[in-house]
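Sequence dictates fold. Below is an illustrative record:

_____
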Amino acid sequence: MELNNGQYALSGGVDPLQLAERYDCPLYVYDSAIMQRQYHRLQKAFKVKKLKINYACKALTNINVLRLFRQLGSGLDTVSIQEVWLGLQAGFSPQDIIYTPNCVSLEEIGMAVEKGVKINIDNLSILEQFGHDFPNVPVCIRVNPHIMAGGSSKISVGHIDSKFGISIHQMPHVLRIVEATGIQVEGLHMHTGSDILDAEVFLRGAEILFNAAHHFSNLEYIDFGSGFKVPYKPNDISTDIEDLGEKLSERFNAFCADYGRDLSLIFEPGKFLVSEAGYFLAKVNVVKQTTSNVFAGLDSGLNHLIRPMFYDAYHRITNISNPAAKPRIYTVVGYICETDTFGVNRKISEIREGDILCFHNAGAYCFSMASNYNSRFRPAEVLVHKGQDYLIRRRETMEDILRNQMEAEFLTEKINAS
């Protein structure tokens, strides 16, 4: 969303204030042009013979977004059987979906096998059981490289104490299971965390995977997960994808030559593809002056956007109703009966009751983590594509809150009797 001539606009000149008026607030808005830009940037960065980008759909699971990435040529990274079903419903072929669960039952994994998707296993117990029950189904193995990387401890998943992946030091045990069950290993996978800046992190992980790969003679791909950092503030630092692409492509091509054939290089970006494409619009209910703060209280809360409370995540907040006004200092809060603070001591153009505030970088892990806490409705979602806006999820109603609740007969009898 760019500020031009004193007014904010999305791609194609779409006015976000008109969207707020048309669809009401709070409202999630996604810009397809930014998703496409990010996807093509990744494609151009890596110079290998076989490159596969799998959208990590847990970031934003709206089926229209999935279909957009399928049209771009993307595969799909899923972490639950429900995401597998969504991917198939969105039109992805089973072989373009990789299923990478954590701490799920063998029963759920079997459901994914039935759908024909690629299976990625991240613990020894399940690998052994899978080998006995599905000896003819190829698998990928998720390796824990013991690399501490990521923006915070909550989003670092490749370190020694992580629940994710099979420790690289357990590779001898993996090989014994493979030999005993006859299972075919078609890929190796790692994911070290999110918000990774340094290309050297991926290169260190690459050496670990390349060394492990020589234990398996029939690999088809090596999957590096993702974790690329995107900018959250003006002039913020982010992963230099072009630098990473140049360095990792060179090393990957050398590995393939040594391995004896070309494997596919796979990445599974989520945040990189959709974070900057998303905006969350919320209306100011009240401006409240206290002895030490000026609060801007919104018609939303942690039920709609929990990342600032859950991860201490930063989202830039702009007043799109009054962009040219003199900046003042505000603490932006929500309407939930908890301390749901979006930002403290933020310099924002003067806020008036009724103004629309915009949260930037709201495409990844925002709506997908929304809830009905305090029995509040989840907001609508709108996709902007080539200058047109499309409602891709309607706002919830009381009917949605009650949809799956069942009335106990002994209680309804008392109500009727009274």
